[in-house]
Amino acid sequence: MIINTAPDKAKAKSLTEMAKITLDRLKETNKEKYPSNTLTDYYDIIRKLMEALNALDGVKIKGEGAHFQIIDYVCDKYKLHISTKQFIQDLRDYRNRISYEGFSVKESFIESNASKIEKIISLLLKLINEEQN
After folding, report:
1. Which of the chain's ends, N or C, has fewer CB atoms near its CB within 10 Å?
2. What DSSP character marks residue 63?
3. CA–CA dist 120, 93 (Å, integer)
4. In the CATH hierarchy, which top-level class contains the domain 2-132?
5. Partners of residue 60 on adjacent β-strands
6. What are phi and psi of 30, to 5 degrees?
7. How far apart are the first and last CA of the chain?
């Protein structure tokens, strides 16, 4: 459910800082040694950054399927490529499978996709900076 609220710069700043802290910690971790944890952290960073963009826009998304809607909303609003949107949705699905089914991500997935994920994170950080200024 999408709810319009007042823009909340403080919340956006807090979410962005939390995402950056997780990213800094992840940089100090052997990502390939812990691929499922790495994917969960990457997804958490992306989700927090998308929620920060929503806070700046004055939008709150909650309820059943909220993460799916957050991804769709941000990707559509900021005109991210459909392949990027699908990739983030795939990360969401993997994260859910890790959390609820005990799914294990293979080391090769992180090796193959870490730079793509980090480019998405950089893009979201750039969008946040543009929205804040």
Report:
1. C
2. S
3. 17
4. mainly alpha
5. 3
6. -80, 95
7. 28
CB atoms within 10 A of CB 67: 18
What does the pLDDT look like over 65-100, one tens digit per residue? 999 999 999 999 999 999 999 999 999 999 999 999
User: In one letter, which amino acid is 50?
Assistant: M
What is the C-alpha to C-alpha distance for residues 82 and 120, in angstroms, rounded to an integer?
A: 13
pLDDT tens profile 6-62 = 999 999 999 999 999 999 999 999 998 999 999 999 999 999 999 999 999 999 999
Listed as own residue / partner, the contacts of 59-62 with beta carbons closer than 8 Å and 24 or more positions apart are: 59/2, 59/3, 59/4, 59/5, 60/2, 60/3, 60/4, 60/5, 61/1, 61/2, 61/3, 62/1, 62/3
Give the whole-angstrom CA distance, residue 56 versus residue 33: 36
